[in-house]
Batch of 3 targets.
Target 1
Amino acid sequence: MRSAMRWLSVVGGLCFSWASPAMAEGTPVDCGSVDCEGIREMKALFEAQMSFMGETDRFSMDLAAVGFAPPACADGSRAPVPGPGWVAGCRFAYRVTAVTGYPEAPASFTAMAQGAAGTAAAGVKLLISKPSWDKVVFTLERGGVRRFVGWDECLPAASFTCDAQLREGTQNIRGLFTSERAFMQEKDRYSSNLQEVGFLPMGCTDGTRAAGPDSSWVGGCRFIYSVEVAGTGPAMTFIATARAISGPIAGTTMKINETGVLTITPVPGMCQ
């Protein structure tokens, strides 16, 4: 999978075709709100597409083929679909609007969710742009105002808290550990060059990426990552570091070594 990721290069100039409304700051929404239905299912659609890409080296316009099946309402009803290619959930309908695929073009996809008329979701639109494997832009539009949607929105209990924000770092540093171990199997060594080992974490949903102090660091959204390597040959060791640089968890440091032991050092008073 690491080698497969390397050909997923950035697609320049990808844009949406709607008129540009005002853009608001991303604000967490109530987990029980109608917006969260669309947010949760669009995240599920995204994850289904990424899983399908990992298995087939392509994205798909066919949501059934990628395994995306949003649930109906509690009474069994579903939103009406606007036309062919749409999949109905409870109060939203979903579809993939465009796909480009390897090897003819860099792999990417765009998808949207549209709230059903006559429901609390009427007039709500969510859009995902996937211009490259490490980048995604996720927005919600209501009443002519569009905002970016964070991956930590509309999660179960503990949403918008430290646990939700720390999840980015813990998932990515474990991914970095896996990349280093896979690189060792191929090259008989570890590497502090994260591009060489094929590690590039997802940036924020507004397309930005955290900046590190120097070129040895690679930025995700709230965290930056680096690896220190010691020794030679079979006796080589490494320590990977993830450091939070924004939000209430800023300053939190995570470390994982070649044996998989993970330690987390929070900042004093974090989220209190």
Target 2
Amino acid sequence: MIINMLDTHSSVTVSQLSEIFRISDVSVRKLPAAMEQEGLVKRTWGGAISAYGSLNEFSHKEKEWKHTEEKLSIAYAAYECISDGDAVFLDCGTTTTQLARVIRSGSKRKILVGTNAINIAMELSEAEDISVIVIGGNFRHRILSCVGAYAEDMMKNLFFDKGFISGNHLTLEHGFTTPDLQEARMKRLMMASCKEHYIALDYSKFGDDSLGLIASISDLDGIVTDWRTPKDFVEQLRDRGVNVVQGKEIYCSKEVISE
């Protein structure tokens, strides 16, 4: 069960495992210790993290059906931050793809969308009243994004009202991170090109670090997340001056999510 949890979460805590298994914290602590000896997990101060390491990066297809309700919840919350006539940047990612679909079918118009994700551009191709700017460059097949020198040069010359940036992990200690260093550089440029930027992360992305730093907590304007993100974590982010927007709990089928 712990291994299955770490397939979809960045980390698990002793208190979570104690509640799930209905055993004491002392007994729970023995489980990650034994699993670490077998090379199955890595122990942390308050629990365990995946043994995959800081370089692990799932493909778009691998992530597409993980936490789908939470991602759609984030997309609806992010859409509320957008106004008619905004120039909006959407980073690559499965959560921002959901936001592109909400923008396509929503009532707000005269919106310009910039993106470095080929699939997001295609999602918006049928909405003729939404302008799209595609950032080109070196195409990363696994996550459907464009990065590299050409993409960076184009990004430096564009300025958006709002940006929604995806990533792999966030911790209070080290900030917002991603496994690929080219992606990290590109995401920093996205943030710099937006008057307001929001980090779009579901609850499973909190509590672990990836290799490359994108931004520290103090550099973040806002975070859009879902209802499952722990209340104490949200409060600590707000105490550090980060605007946290949480989506409401929803349930929908795969057919609704892929429309």
Target 3
Amino acid sequence: MARIPYVLVDAFASAPGAGNRVAIVLDARGMAPEEMARVAAHLGEPETAFLTERQGTAFGVRFFTPSGEVEFSGHAALALGLTLVRLGLAPEGTTRLYLHTPTEALPVEVIYEEGEPKKAWVRGPSPRFRDLPPFALLKEALEALGTNERYLHRGLPYGIAFTGLWSLFVPLVTPGVVDALEPEMPALQEVSRKLEVATVHAYAPMGPRSFYARDFAPLLGIPEDPVTGSANAALGALLARSGVVPRREGEVRLTIYQGHRLGNPGVVEVLVEYSPTGLPYAVKIGGEAIIVASGEL
């Protein structure tokens, strides 16, 4: 039986043990989705990316959590982009490559420092928004998180947004309140099901353009995701649409800190671009990633 090579990569991190770990299966050509699901469950990481095709700077990819396939994984896409260049699977000196998912092509920009690939920017799916959920359901989400409406930040937006996964965003008054959350997972799973969201993303301000966040995804089999690409991209879009973050020259740049409560500190850079009508139409997430291990199945 052919061996299946894979690497483990810490995304949104510059040192091993930080950020969010992703498994990358380097050759999934001919692998059926059912087999990918089994491999992802065996590897046991929050996300597994499967490289299904390779041609020049275009690569086929599918993303799986322990509970099944997802349309987009921001940290896995970023880790994959840098890994393809570092392992020589992309042409030498590549500065832009494309990840083709079953639904769209995601451009990845690779940034070099002193000739070495240092950082990547991934453009995720276009942001989408839903109507505000009933306040009663927001209160239910707050209670499931282990807090209440007294700690809700009234100057920041709450709501449901999408850049690959639908998430509920819950603004809280300080990072300390976010860190103190101790969710009741069955209750959070139930409210996630009611709202039809994949994750519940609690966040708080640290400065005019910086925020602290935690992300809970019990429906995906992930009680808490260390550092989240897609949800932070959607958070950037939600903040940009609400107008509460300063806007410069048709774009907004934000920094999101996440993972500190779990001992996996990570940094996600978010760039939101506006259309001529003034609405956010594109979101990019950026950061570093480091290969920490390799193996075969």
